Amino acid sequence: MTTEKSLIDSALRGWKFNVERAGKLFGTLSPEQLEHEVAPGRNRLIYLWGHLAAVNDRLLPLLGIGERLHPEFDAMFISNPDKSVPLTVSEQSLKTAWQEINQKLSDGFAKFSDSEWAQRHTAVSVEDFEREPHRNRFGVLLGRTAHLAYHLGQAALAQPGA
User: Fold this and answer.
1) What is the tens place of the pLDDT at every residue in 122-161?
2) CA-CA distance, 110 to 102, in Å (whole number)?
3) pTM of the model
4) Does residue 120 contact residue 126 with C-beta atoms inside 8 Å?
5) Which of 49, 74, 102, 159 lies deepest, with the highest CB count within 10 Å?
């Protein structure tokens, strides 16, 4: 295995591990448990889950995998703070969306060659990428894995009995 392939494999394993952890954590909570806040007056667990789903959904076009599956999540989970707009998604439909989004990402990741991981993502111009080649798909994967792990830590502490 080449060094590049080994690094990519490690990053993908980290991504998969965190996606699976999030699916297990959020997917097993009751509707009442999903209403718990990470701290008094802060985001609810359902908001964190929806936020992670929306952010992952945004990876699809950012990495050139495909169109977003749930752009309607932005208003509920990215553009507005928790509790400022009504959630129009049920726990079950959020669970289904989580699985659907992450399966499409996984399928897309599996198609990338080593060199395609080093290519620019769609939010960076050709000119900027020439100056900053670290703004590539692999860098996005690393950053989003860290983002996912951060919110998983919040969610783990917010669970009743934690």
Assistant:
1) 999 999 999 999 999 999 999 999 999 999 999 988 876 6
2) 12
3) 0.94
4) yes
5) 49
